[in-house]
Each structure stands twice: as structure tokens, then as C-alpha cells.
Amino acid sequence: MAFYLLISATALLLLAVLYTFFHGKERQTGKPEDSPGKRPGRPVGKEAKPVGGIADRPSPAAILPDEYQDESSGTPPRLAEGMARLFSHEPPQPASRRLQRSGDLRDDVRESVMSRIVSLKNFGTIHRLQRIMGDPGSTMTELSRMITSDPILSAKILEIANSAYYGMRQKLNSISHAIMIIGMTNLKAIVYHEGVLQALDERGFREDPAMKALWQHVNYTSIFASYFQYLFGSLNMGNLFTLGLLHDIGKFIMIRLAPMAANDADLPGGYSPLWTPEEEAARYGISHPLVGRLALEHWGLSNLLVETVALHHAPVHIPPYELGLDREALQYLLVLFLADRAAHLFAEGETAEGQMDRLHPAYHALIDRNRLLHLIQDKVLLGQLREAEAIAGVYA
């Protein structure tokens, strides 16, 4: 009996020695013990990130990919503040600002606009290029072949790829290589820029500060729109990018329209891209969203593009149930509206904030504001905007 007691005591003593040895070694290496309320393996001094920030309390539908979890973007604070003001609960705009319809146009106004649109003979090529670039199945060879068929566009792309911005050690002579260097996002903007210039035959646009600002705006809008795809998740990023580029096409067309005021009064001065749709309609009998509708319909673009461009100012004063859009089309419209506003804020800051229309309250519940504010803080988005700004300085 004593023998068994001795064996048991020895075993217990050995277990105690082993426990003390390993427990002491764990403390020396700094590995903490697991304890209630603390996640296993968390480094000493690293407590859980406090809850309460925009990115820390998204709704279940607002979970973003890992690459969108960085909050140190350096995005101008005015952008987040200005976008937040879109959701202020101000009364909707009065009925006088309601949508201008195609049937409202005077015959002479419609005839003048359509004659200008019909004269834009080169826009079909640009539309085909946009369609190829939006098709995931398109190859680099197909794209290169399309671009090389246009000598002016080819020269412009090579000029940009060889510019100081990209810092190439050896001069590039290959369109395929140049396309890879520039990237699809910037390539689409360049194609649109050159295509509109050729279609309108307006060389003077390059020297006009207002037009340069408009080019910059549509470029920014296309980038914001493609990023805001994450607001809903099921939208096509290529369609959104194209919508951003095309949403103000009506302004480019109106540049050479003759003013036709409702009272037939002579109006001094030419068109300004800074006018509101209401100011445009008062001076020309038509606003740029409606000019955009007529142009996109004439060029045979999809109904989604036509309706979204035509309605991109509508969320200010028309509730969603009056637009007659299905759920997906309404989401495209909201993304374009928000991207348009974000682009103005990014480029113009406080000036844009003071002039910015608010979103109709009926749309507020359709948008996850936490997700929106998180997206505009993304440092990758800011990088693309800065790159677009630098490249625009080369080809403007």
C-alpha cells in the first residue's frame, strides 16, 4: 500500500514540475493565456478595435471586400461632408423644377437639336470602342485593331503612354503595349474625349477653361460611378463607367446650338456648362438631360443608358415611384446621381457644396449611407482620381 502511495506522490510531483516549467516558458515568450472575453492569440496590448465608426458598424448588406477596409485614404474631408449633406431632410424642390419631357419641345427647338445630333457622324466608332472595352471577352488584339484604325486616336494614346507621367525608359511604339501601360479606366476616358472632339469638330475646346472643367467632371464621374457599384453589388461596373462618361453629352452638343428662349427674346452670350437644366431650358427651350436622351436614342444605345442619362437630375425633385423605372434601373440612376455630386465636390469643394441640390427624401431609405461614406474614403479610389487628373493634363 505504501508503495502505491509513493508512486502516486511521485507522479503528482512530476506533473507539477512539468506544469511549472512549461507555464514559465510561455510567460517568457510573451504568449498570453486564453481568458474569457479575450480572443485567443491576440498580441499583448492589442485590444479589439472599438465599435462605433462608419466602417465598424455596417448593416449586414454592407459588408465590403477586404480591399475596402482601409480608412486612411487621405480623401478630402469636404467630400464626405458634402455627400452627407445630400441626405438632409429639406423639402423637395417645387413643381416648377419637374422633368422636361420630349413632348414638351417646340418644333423648331427639336429640329435644331436633331440637326446638330445627326451631324455628329463619327460617334458610331466611339460607341463601338466603348462596347468592346466593356466586354470582358474582348481581347487586346481586337482593341488594338480598333484603335489603330483611327490614326489620331493612336497617336494620342502613344503620346500619353510616352509622357513623363509614366516615366518609360524606352520609347513605346506598340499600341498593345501602350494600352497595357495606360489601363482600361484611363483608356476609356481618352477614347471618349477624342471621340467627342472629332465628332463635334471643336478644336477650340482644348483652350476653353469651362470645357476643360467639363471634361474633368465627366472623367471623375465615371470613376466614382464605377466604385459606387458596391452600393448595390449587382450592377455592371462597365455600364456605370460609361454612364459617367455620357451623362453630360447633352452639354457638349448644346455648345453650338443657337439660343431659342421661350419668349423669342435675343439672349446675349453663348452656352455655359455651368448652367442648371432650368437655366438651359429658359435660354434654349431644352435642357442638357433631354438633349442627351435625343442623342443616345438616335445613336441606338440601350434603353438603360438612355433613361439613366435623361433622368440623372430627377432624384432631386421627383420621387422614385413617379419615374416608372424597375428596381435595377433605379439603382443605376441613384449611383449616377451620387457619382455626379461626388465629382462636383471633389473638383470644386465648397463652391459645389453651396450650389448642390439635396436628394429627395423618398430615396434616402434606398441607400446605405454607411457604405457610401466608406467607399468615398477608399485610398484606391483617390489614387484613380489623382491619376486621371494627371493624365488629363497630358491630353487636354
Distance between the termini: 100 Å
State the helix count. Answer: 18
Helix/strand structural class: mainly alpha
Low-confidence stretches: 21-73
Q: Biggest β-sheet: count, sense, barrel?
A: none
Report the portion of residues in β strands. Answer: under 5%
- Beta-strand segment tally: 0
Principal-axis shape: globular
CATH topology of the largest domain: Hypothetical protein af1432
Rg, Cα atoms, Å:
29 Å
Q: What is the CATH class of the largest domain?
A: Mainly Alpha
Please characterize this protein's 3D structure.
The chain has 396 residues and is mainly α. The protein has two domains: 77-119 and 207-395, Orthogonal Bundle (Hypothetical protein af1432); 121-201, no CATH class. It is built from 18 helices and no strands. The chain has helices at 2-28, 77-85, 107-118, 123-133, 140-148, 151-161, 175-182, 184-200, 209-227, 237-246, 249-254, 277-284, 288-298, 303-310, 327-348, 350-355, 369-375, 379-395. Helix 9 (209-227) runs antiparallel to helix 10 and helix 9 packs antiparallel against helix 18.
